[in-house]
Give the backbone structure.
Amino acid sequence: MKYTELTREQLEKEYSVIRARYDRLCEEKLSLNLTRGKPEKKQLDLSNDMYTALNNCDFEMDGIDVRNYGLLDGLPSCKRLFSDILGCSPDEIIIGGNSSLNLMYDLIAKAYTNGLLHSERPWCKEEKIKFLCPVPGYDRHFNISISFGMECIPVPLHEDGPDMDIVEELVKDPLVKGMWCTPKYSNPDGFIYSSEVRQRIASLDTAAPDFALIWDNAYAVHCFDGTLPEFPDMIGECRKAGHPDMIYEFASLSKVTFAGSGIAAVASSKDNLTHIRKILTFQTIGFEKVAQYLHVKFLKDKETILKHMEKHAAIMKPKFDAVQNALETELGSLGIADWTHPKGGYFVSLYAMHGTAKRINTLCADAGVAMTKAGATYPHGYDPDDSNLRIAPSYPELPDVIKAMQVLCVSVRLAALELLLGKLGG
Ligand SMILES: Cc1ncc(COP(=O)(O)O)c(C=O)c1O
């Protein structure tokens, strides 16, 4: 029963059935939230033992007392932990506090105040800076660019990564100084960049000498279904392709231990890190090392991390299954929506009928289900198709995910029917 093939009479009939379903859901006075990708409490509880270790510990690691000043760029053992995850060398890593997003912001801020290693001048002295934004993407990436006054250029993101024909053309413009990438389990589609796309990215011939590839490997170990896809070290790939200083890779333990209280790292060429360290000496005596110490003691190495992530997966997978199940059952045959089928990360991307995403947002909100704002996955919140919605099922408990998905699916149907019947916006 494709909605687009129904007669007006059939559409009207379906509309009254779905409208009645929607009204009944509204009567339940729900208060559910599918907005941000936060771990739920059970996932956080998985890491409580990290802090019980505090009762009986010596605070010594790598020959130093981690409670005291020292080691500007992090504990060597913590660098080894991240190098285990990313595949690069420990001396290509700076450990930098609790948040990778903060590190990304800080890199851009440094580019503006001081310039990057190969900048001809600080970015604040440039008349204009453009950044490539694969869409849909992570709103907070785009908002960093926007907050510095950059022009965000949307580039379509396909299942295997950004549209490289377009990217290769755009980087011929010297004003294009970087690109945001979430290469594994992209936010929100959950796509994994293919090796061909990664190779083309590493080989990018950019007109800007200080082009910054922001390689946000936020979901490097966050697989909840099947085996984790392994990437060869991207810093090495860029070096091999002749662009050793183009890449800044970011990683985070926020969604391994405690969200916002994990450890974040930036990995890059040794020359880039020397440049960053020089600026960092004015900024801090050193980042928090007690948390680094505890994370190393608790997570040990990649093998232990992957075992830990299996426990996360056992909590996450039923919720993602519930999302897929609801979408398939409610929307599968109607021809009004497509969606992604990620096996890791924190999100599912829903593509509703063009022109209906904002209306779906409103319908969900009126029925007590908060969704990420339609358009949020595009720079300036502008989705030209008004179609994409990000589903974030991790935070609510499973029964709430199931209920929220009922509301979302009924809203997708209702909005499509309103559109087809000419009732939308009228
Ligand atoms: C792609 C991506 N990068 C970074 C972050 C934030 O990481 P952190 O907590 O380390 O700042 C998130 C959080 O949702 C994310 O989805």
